[in-house]
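Work package 3, deliverable 3.1, input record:
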Amino acid sequence: ILNVEQSPQSLHVQEGDSTNFTCSFPSSNFYALHWYRWETAKSPEALFVMTLNGDEKKKGRISATLNTKEGYSYLYIKGSQPEDSATYLCALFDSWGKLQFGAGTQVVVTP
Amino acid sequence: DGGITQSPKYLFRKEGQNVTLSCEQNLNHDAMYWYRQDPGQGLRLIYYSQIVNDFQKGDIAEGYSVSREKKESFPLTVTSAQKNPTAFYLCASSGGKSGNTIYFGEGSWLTVV
């Protein structure tokens, strides 16, 4: 079983503040790292697919970086808004075609 | 519209009965996955299939069975051997390569009483 870990498990952010959280994974057998956003009562929605060491991706106020050598990825939210409240999942795609998810980071943005 | 359809959305079953959850996709995706989520926990992989007529066990396959007779369909059977079947089940599909985005169904809630 791959060990994809996310921290923190949850965080509360004031509207307008920026925040970031971590996904760590074993650096061997790495093929790709995925980030998803999961809102209550909806299906998870893809944010980023990252494959190369040093990758940086951005989508609006959300961005992510990837370090495959040390086995971690950061997700950043700049100027958090209440609509950013969701659980953010990272998932590791390995060499056997498995997609393993971390437990997620639940973000709550309060006005 | 293209997408993944899971059914039923809510299902109640008596203990000891097998139950089959449906997952259909019209995205022409090669790979399909089944995950389980329990309260306060992440998504755990039950089974996955990278191509028709082939599938592999995930991390918690005991008590479950699947088939992949058609590209668009990947049904999951929760058997009576599954000790704690009450959970949220999520089906997903992708183009099969690591760089492809995964698309998810809306999930099925199974309650065994």
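Residues 47 and 56 of chain A are 12 Å apart (CA to CA).
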